[in-house]
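As a warm-up, study this chain.
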Amino acid sequence: MTMWRKLTSLYLALVLLLTLVAPAGVAGQAERLAYRVDISGPITVVTAGYLERAIDEAEGDGAAALVVVLNTPGGGLTTTREMVETMRASTVPILVYVGPSGATAASAGTIITLAGHAAAMSPGTSIGAASPVSMEGEMGEVERRKAENILVADLKALTEGRSPEAQEWAEKAVTESAALSASEALAIGVVDAVAATPEEALAQLQGKELLVAGRTVALDAAGVPLEPVPLSLVEQLLDALLDPNIAFILLTIGMNAILFELSSPGGYVAGIVGAICLVLGFFALGVLDVNWTGLGLIVLAFVLFVADVMTPSLGVLTGLGVLSFALGSVVLFSSPLYQVSLALVATVALFTGGFILFVVAKAIAAQRRPPVTGTATLVGAVGQVREALDPEGMVLVGGELWSARSEAAPVAAGAMVRVTAVEGLRLTVEEVTE
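Now compare it with the structure written out below.
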């Protein structure tokens, strides 16, 4: 019995020990979390919101690191500076990784890369060419110089802890559009590692001391699986709306639907759909810094379409409208970051022109169609004589009694007659012999 008591006591002690150790193990695992966000394409307000949400999640879960996998041609300076502020205020170490191979961190991407607490690049990637570019066309000399000075100051602040060569290059990236390959960036200290994967970059930088939220922290994320932070449904929808091609299609559908509603009112469905598409399209235009000349040409095109529908011009106004529509669509987004596909412009312009010609043809046909109401519709109708026509009498046509006059010989009551003309409220008829 003594032996069994000892074994039972030992078993209970082991259970108690495991119970006490388990929470500590879970807590230790929680401290070893690491998150990953993927930013690809132009930097927009959706990108800024996505990164801010990921940082909040990483801080809330006590993540060991947040890896930002970056591949971007650039974006708006205001949005980029907001992202930089969010990143520098993070209490979680942020590693910006330019990848995969073939990716670039150009323009605003350069600023975001240098804003990370650590930076790494994949072989075959590039960074730089951070010269300011206006979203609305060519910049004046004074405007360009002011933008360059602001960018140089920003990059100098972000490279204070890096080598003098890196600081010198950061200025050239703005003033001379200088760019570097991954190996060149590593050689002068612009980035901290060159690695084939983000996991390999974390392993190379294990133990590196980073200045995070005003305190020195040793990076400890080697071997920790990276858990992706996906875009939410709302962020996916907004990201899709900010595609210039999608915005262009929404504007076109909205204007066509409104035009269809004006040409044949009463259904309301086309008008409601058109209004929704226009609202979504104008949201995108507000974010993407539209070229107002292009938008004006598109609006002019639809004014010409409406004029052709209301007063058909045998397609002349429609042709001018299609030309105005195509020119406006090409210059709608003048920024190199936001361009509408020329093939899409040509397809939509031809489709819109065909649709307007169809509506115009229907309008002309409606004008030429004989009236379907009034006394003119009685011509050709057959009725029965109720009061003999000699030469005048009464006939029943269309369920109503009419005063009638025979244009030939008298017609006896009960005979069938056909209406040949209407004069006021009196019909002219002829006898039907068949």
